[in-house]
Amino acid sequence: MSTLKNLEDLFEHQLKDIYSAENQIIAAFPKMIEHAFSDKLKKAFRYHLEETEVHVERLKNIGSEFNTHVTGETCKGMKGLISEAEAFINEDTERNIRDAGLIANAQRMEHYEIAAYGTVVEYAKVLGYREAARLLEQSLQEERNADEKLTDLAVEMMNMKAKV
Fold first, then answer.
1. In the chain, what percentage of residues exceed pLDDT 90?
2. What domains, with CATH codes, occur in the chain?
3. Which CDD domains match (predicted)?
């Protein structure tokens, strides 16, 4: 990592971190989809995977606007979260428990993204990057919505399990 001298440098660094995180999710989610049992969960994961691909394009566009390459960083935080999810997938679990665990792992990833986007949105606002702030805010809201959908799905699954 290069020396960060000002908020612009930190903003650029954070864009690279989020870009890496989003690309790691794109690589990891197909395996999570494959191992999910519930059709609703598979659908939710597929939908979020498509959104994530849009987020990557937004980040590339923002980087281009500032003549910045958003590649070149590895988000160690997301790498760790994905490693935990992969370890969970390899556990021998009953299918409903697996789905609940997949949701928990996906929500950890969502919470990381929510924190990252929330921070970079504020940096963009302070720096006067209104269009970047607007685009990043859009991704932030989509991450919040994805987290909310996963929470609703988890509650629904627990209620169904309680009725058995």
1. 87
2. 7-162 (1.20.1260.10)
3. YciF (cd07909)
